[in-house]
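note to self: the first set is below, dont mix up w the second
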Amino acid sequence: MDETAMRETPKNRAFTTKELTFTALMAVLLIVCSWISIPTPWGIVFTLQTFAVFFSLTLLGGKCGTFSVLTFLLLGAFGLPVFSQFRGGVGALFGLTGGYMLGFVLTVLIYWLAELIPAKGAARIVRNVAAMLVGLAACYLFGTLWFMHVYALDDKVISFKGALALCVVPYIAFDLVKLALAVLLGERLRKHISLK
């Protein structure tokens, strides 16, 4: 058999070299953004995790964005201090608020599926933003149900409404701002990079 024919072409690869590189870089960005805690005058402290997730999706698309999030979660599960407050390990991932981090998987998968809908120009941006909003809602829902489940393991009771008021409502406005900034920045930068 001809040696040239045996060589793997970019089309046959799961990832190109550039895709692997940018996927790794976005995983690192997600780690750094998790470490950044921003306090507010209202007593709410938020990180830039969701910004990094949205930015990764906007810049790289669903496939690479999904694998950057999975890399981040796997590194944390193996004990590296990649989560907020430099936490790591299965205990941090499966704790009270771990469901919101696991919910990122729903966010990126919904975005990846949405990319199957053909769209160009402004329609593509609208499709992508809508997918991120649906993905964020799915993340909120999963994380809240997870919070209620773990909370109940200590023989405590909290209603769905109470869990939303504690874990979601104070952060919605910040997450929407982060989404908007991620899309604006990601759309500007994606014009200057190629993953092929």
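second set (the one i keep forgetting abt)
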Amino acid sequence: MTTDEFRRYAHKLADWMAGYMENVEKYPVKSTVKPGEIFNRLPDVPPEHPESFDNIIRDIEEIIMPGITHWQSPNFFAYFPANASPPSILAEMITATLGAQCMIWETSPAAAELEEKVMNWLRDMIGLPGYFQGVIQDTASTATLAAILTAREKSTGFSVNENGFSNDKRLRVYCSEQAHSSVEKAVKIAGIGRKNLVKIGVLPDFSIDCRKLEEAVTKDIREGFVPCCVIATLGTTGTTAVDRLRPVGEICKENHVWLHVDAAMGGTALILPEYRWMIDGSEYIDSFVFNPHKWMFTNFDCSAFFIRYPELLIRTFEILPEYLKTRTRGQVNDYRDWGIPLGRRFRALKLWSVIRSYGTEGLREKIRYHLSIASNIAEMISKENDFELLAPVVLNTVCFRYKPAGKVEDQLNILNQKLNHLLNDSGKIYLTHTSLNGRYTLRMVTGQTNVTMAHAEKAWQIIMSVARNIQL
């Protein structure tokens, strides 16, 4: 492709992208294709000769787009937000054009120094103490793994990296029953073992029961285990429950346990002063993660990981082969030593672009609006005799179910599962579910970049109409 051809197609695609953003809510929110349908429409062998980019654009429209679930639709209320925004997309285009490999300062000084500065901005925006330093990871799953690996090394005197595990150190990791599955995956990958992940029961609001946590830690110490790490969650995946950091932190400090905070989605709310209560006890935190690619309008992937003692993180991950030695080592941050991968994308550019384009007050305004939508939806649900809320509405997630009179629990579970599938198959809205105390629970997440109260009200009318016409 020549430069002139690139310019022509780039303009064509820019128009396509703008048109998509304008019309995204006209698409069925959830893809309606059947398993294997896209695969079977693609040729079994690659082309022998070059194809026109026009053909690629045509196939994107005819083959790829029918298989896309539209996360950027304001009718998307499922899972969690995976937000994009125009300033983020434009910056991502620049990142792709530069094609920089930002593993160390030498390979792109601007990437390293912008990342350091923008992470300082973000730290201050969410109210973490100034001694935290930040690095951008790809996902919260990776950040949590990095935290657990660092906690593992700290609790074993950095011996596991050197010698592997020995039988005299049986490590334990603790989290609530509502913690994200990435914790269990990280414990497996770290070699600690799934059986050494202790899942702690929760209170009626689905936050961790600190009394049970303290009992579990005390019991493990008595039985010869080494408590290694506690993961507290600010905004659990199922209900956005918030664990109380201060009592959790006090337990960790007393027993010399690493405290990692997973605030993957909920952390964005910390830019609001009225939500700083969520990090009461921040002086006990050792590491903290939240995802601007969820609820801060920065397209995937961009996960903000903060650590109190970066020297422990670096000691866990650093390896210095001859070909990576530089004259600037020790004077700058070489972020390849701050996590698992060597190769790194220039993710800071899109985060910088978003923060500057919205401004901190513009970001706060949108987050407050999303929170108000969730609060209003919860109020509407509570006014209907045949619906009920199943969890407190703490952030932007409403957990509820359809509960017509005369139905027992098993019938209600079947009914709500059927309701969920009917709603999603309609293409009009997209919801997902969880299970709370054995109850099939619908989740409505009001955090998509461009969602409005009108979208949420329309969705609620659809939910009520479909529910009340289901026949069991």
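remember for set 2: The first strand starts at residue 133 and ends at 137.
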